[in-house]
TrEMBL record:
Transmembrane segments: none
GO molecular function: NADPH binding; oxidoreductase activity, acting on NAD(P)H
Protein name: Zinc-binding dehydrogenase family protein
Domain of life: Eukaryota
Organism this protein belongs to: Stylonychia lemnae (Ciliate)
Claim: Cell wall biogenesis/degradation is one of the keywords in the record: no
Keyword Cell membrane in annotation: no
Keywords: NADP, Oxidoreductase
SUPFAM superfamilies per UniProt: GroES-like, NAD(P)-binding Rossmann-fold domains
Pfam family, one: ADH_N
Length: 325
């Protein structure tokens, strides 16, 4: 094992801060030591920061790095393997169970794997939910975000009709150019709701994936056909959702929440999780066209608080990643 100390962002004495941490003396059964090269900064981290403010909690939803040491009894050939992982990413080193790692091909650039689990797994899980619900169309707000783009590409592969929602004409043009979709709705247009109703009325089962927050998602759900379902995965506007009650007792619509950590822990079986990991690893090996992190800006680990404040400014361009070494 390494000797000395390393840096990590940890909740200490009432706030999150960059602190020095001692290396552990010994790895336990099945554990490996990962030298973290990159970690991402995103809205999910903000949620974690608001809900995990307890002593010694280490921040960072995920990261990528190289295995530097392994527990006694593990295959020594694991040393030097590139991996991605979840939890405690804002650190120069992490200890992980090898079974929880996403193993990467040697050719993968660790930058594009900095955000290789939370958003990709969220997208794959949402696709699974939509397929289980037998959706024949999916409405996606905040469609120009990294997660929105992943969802569009996955549903295109499944031949499920997609109705992406763009916040303005610039995003509308970007989505049309990038994906060539016939149905893209510009929320800034006066006729937005009329166009949405016209596009949605021909589908029997619509699932609306919403991360925008505020009062708009409720208005959108209100205009979707009866028996439509909303999956609420975020609240970028940081405002409460308001939905007319008649949507539920008259139109039999439903709303469910999706929080990645809970879904992974309580609903996703191990076989499907490993299958999804394989899909992500293959995509990253092939250049990360779907799941690779689109880097908007690189910063240093010690600049984590500045990076957190810049998330909204960079959300349409890609991800902010932190260099941990």
């Amino acid at each position: 094992m390494q000797k000395g100390q390393f840096n990590q962002v940890r909740f200490k004495d009432g706030s999150f801060k960059l602190v020095k941490q001692d290396f552990i003396n010994k790895l336990e059964q099945n554990e490996v030591l990962v030298k973290v090269h990159y970690t991402s900064v995103n809205q999910y981290d903000k949620i974690l920061m608001e809900n995990r403010s307890k002593e010694d909690y280490v921040m960072g939803a995920e990261g990528s790095g190289i295995i530097e040491d392994v527990a006694q009894g593990l295959d020594q050939n694991l040393k030097g393997r590139k991996v991605a992982f979840i939890h405690h990413g804002w650190s120069q080193y992490v200890v992980k169970d090898q079974d929880d790692l996403l193993f990467l091909d040697e050719s993968v650039d660790l930058r594009i794997a900095a955000d290789a689990i939370v958003n990709p797994m969220t997208a794959l899980c949402l696709r699974k939910i939509c397929c289980d619900l037998k959706a024949n169309a999916v409405v996606i707000d905040s469609a120009s975000t990294s997660l929105g783009r992943m969802l569009i590409q996955l549903f295109q592969k499944d031949n499920i009709d997609i109705i992406p929602l763009a916040m303005d004409s610039k995003q509308f043009d970007q989505l049309r150019t990038e994906f060539g979709l016939a149905r893209i709705m510009d929320q800034s247009k006066k006729e937005f709701f009329d166009l949405l109703c016209g596009a949605a009325e021909k589908f029997e089962k619509i699932v609306y994936i919403s991360m925008q927050g505020g009062d708009l998602p409720g208005k959108i759900l209100d205009r979707l056909p009866a028996k439509s379902e909303m999956i609420l995965i975020g609240n970028l506007a940081e405002k409460d959702l308001v939905v007319p009650c008649s949507n539920f007792y008259y139109d039999s619509k439903k709303i469910r929440g999706f929080f990645f950590d809970r879904y992974l822990r309580e609903e996703l079986d191990d076989e499907t999780e490993h299958k999804f990991f394989h899909i992500i690893a293959q995509d990253l090996k092939n250049g990360g066209m779907i799941f690779g992190t689109k880097v908007a800006k690189e910063m240093k680990l010690e600049e984590w608080d500045q990076a957190l404040n810049q998330i909204s400014d960079k959300s349409q361009e890609g991800k902010i990643i932190l260099q941990c070494q």
